[in-house]
Every structure is written in C-alpha cells, then in structure tokens.
Write a structure and sequence with these properties.
Blueprint (H helix, E strand, L loop, with lengths): L2 H26 L2 E5 L5 E5 L3 E6 L2 E10 L6 E5 L5 E7 L5 E6 L5 E7 L5 E7 L2 E8 L3 E8 L3 E9 L3 E6 L5 E6 L8 E5 L5 E7 L4 E6 L5 E5 L6
Antiparallel strand pairs: 1-2, 3-4, 4-5, 5-6, 6-7, 7-8, 8-9, 9-10, 10-11, 11-12, 12-13, 13-14, 14-15, 15-16, 16-17, 17-18
C-alpha cells in the first residue's frame, strides 16, 4: 500500500475512533459507580426507560420501567403482549398498583380513593365488585354492583361494628350493629321507605322485639312497652 493509501486509512481510523469516543461518552454519562468504605462497589444507571424483552423472542416486549413528569412506572406484559401489572407513583407522590385481566380490563386497584383513603378495589370485566378502605377512625368493606352501587357494607370503628344491606335504591333495609342500648347488639329490618319495621335487640335481663308501621311508629312489642 502506498503512502497515499496509508494516509487515507489512517484518517478513516481516526474518524472511527472519534465516533467511538463520542458514543462512549454518551453511554458512560448514564453510568455511575459508588465505592463504599468496605471497598464494595455498586453501578448506577441513569435513564428514562428500560425495556424488558423475551430473549428467545426479541420482538416480544415483557415489561418497561420508565420515568417522566407524571412519575415513575413499572409495567409488565403477559404472553399476549397486553399489560397485566402496573406499579406507579404519580406526580403528587401517591402510589398505586393495578392488575389487568387478559382483555385489558382492570381487575384490582390498590391505592387511594378520592378522599385519600388507602383502598383496594376489585373489578370483574371492568365493573366494580368490592372495596376495602381505611381511615384514622374506621375500616370499611363493601360489596357493590355495576356503577359502584353498594349492596353490602361492613364498618368497624372504636365504639361499634356494623353490617348493612342496601336495596337498588341505596336504602338500608337490614342493619346489624353492636351499638344498641345497654351495650347490646341489635338487628333492624326496614321498610322500603327506610323506616324501621322490625327491631330485635337485647335488654339487661331479656331479649326485645319491636314491630313498627311504615311511619316508624311502634305497633307491637315483646315484652310490653312498659317493660322495655
């Protein structure tokens, strides 16, 4: 090879080395190494997204860890290339976990409700079915129908525990509570108007049954009202 050829090859190599150095600088700026007192090291990676794929099927994405203005998010896909799990923290710092059915409908949401109460919600084919919530003063469990309409509610608090059954008009028709008179429990069966129809409770020395009309006025009782 003559001198001219050597010069051309040398310039080509210089250009390739310069490009490699540029690419290396771009790459290494995303890496950092922390060295601890005991001599151990950890490598840190700074990036906006990491994509996970099936090494046997490089075209099949199985997950993504990303960061952005709305907060960090980890999303995992199933074999059908559809999201099945998402873990995120929004820009307000509120965390959430969502599980999805194969048709992309959400099935479970763990996070906070509109009142910032910690909650767990369960869905079937996109329709709500149950919820668990907690606050400083009480715990709450409910079974609901389409649209979030409650049918059964259970409340636990310092002074009492209650179970309520609701009709499609969202009126309580049966109530079981520990907060009766004389620290006893009671069961109330209501008219469709919401007025108590039957009250069953316990007295210090005996049980008590009260029957009311639709206006909520007592008609009969056992024992006699004078002994209640």
């Amino acid at each position: 090879m003559n001198a001219t050829g050597n010069t051309i090859e040398l310039e080509k190599l210089k250009k390739e080395v310069a490009e490699l150095k540029k690419e290396m600088r771009l790459l290494t700026q995303h890496f950092g190494v922390d060295v601890f007192e005991d001599g151990s090291k950890s490598v840190n990676l700074l990036c906006s997204a990491i994509t996970l794929f099936n090494y046997e099927k490089p075209g099949q994405t199985q997950g993504c860890l990303s960061a952005g203005p709305d907060g960090p998010c980890l999303c995992l896909w199933g074999s059908a290339d559809k999201p099945r799990l998402e873990i995120s923290v929004d820009k307000e710092g509120i965390p959430s976990i969502e599980l999805f059915q194969a048709d992309k409908n959400v099935s479970v949401v763990i996070g906070q409700d509109s009142l910032n109460m910690p909650s767990v919600a369960v869905f079937h084919e996109g329709q709500p079915r149950a919820a668990i919530k907690a606050s400083e003063k009480c715990g709450f469990v409910s079974a609901v129908h389409n649209g979030g309409q409650g049918r059964v509610a259970m409340v636990s608090q310092k002074t009492s525990g209650e179970i309520m059954l609701l009709n499609p008009d969202m009126k309580c028709v049966v109530k079981l509570s520990t907060e009766g008179q004389h620290d006893a429990g009671f069961i109330t069966v209501n008219h469709s108007s919401g007025k108590a129809a039957v009250i069953i409770s316990a007295m210090p020395k005996h049980g008590c049954v009260i029957l009311n009309d639709r206006a909520g006025q007592m008609k009969y009782s056992l024992p006699d009202p004078k002994n209640i």
